[in-house]
Design brief:
Layout: E1 11-16, H1 19-28, E2 32-36, E3 40-44, E4 50-55, E5 63-70, H2 73-82, E6 91-93, E7 98-104, E8 110-115
Parallel strand pairs: 1-4, 5-8
Antiparallel strand pairs: 2-3, 3-4, 6-7, 7-8
Protein name: Catechol-2,3-dioxygenase
Keywords: Dioxygenase, Oxidoreductase
Organism: Chitinivorax tropicus
């Protein structure tokens, strides 16, 4: 029987200059709050990875330093649209057999959402 890989991503970090708005956004896209403070907040993703949200006086946003994967990209897109978050249209990426859309967070970071591409084995 296949075992889970022995390593996982423990933490990813995102800086924000709008902690309250960013915290609400992170919860709205589906992360579980672990700790929420004024200078730092911790959110859990599937698989146990934690997003560390850090308050900074100023940031230079661009593409987020990570991307996300969801089981049902179209349902996630509908859900985020219903929340008024304005994701980009879904694009097909035939070269990698996936679909993708983008969503801007309150600080200006652009987060990429991919359709699932797990192996189907325990992770």
């Amino acid at each position: 029987m296949e075992q889970r890989p022995v390593v996982a991503v423990a933490h990813i970090t995102l800086e924000t200059d709008r902690m309250g708005e960013s915290a609400r956004f992170i919860r709205a896209i589906g992360m579980r709050p672990i700790f929420e403070g004024n200078a730092v907040a911790v959110y859990e993703l599937r698989g146990g990875t934690h997003l560390i949200l850090q308050q900074k006086d100023s940031i230079t946003p661009g593409d987020a330093p990570f991307d996300l994967m969801v089981d049902d990209l179209h349902e996630t897109h509908r859900h985020l649209t219903a929340l008024g978050l304005a994701p980009s249209p879904i694009e097909s990426r035939p070269a990698i057999d996936h679909e993708v859309f983008y969503l801007q967070d309150p600080s200006g970071w652009v987060i990429t959402f991919f359709s699932s591409h797990t192996s189907g084995k325990p992770v």
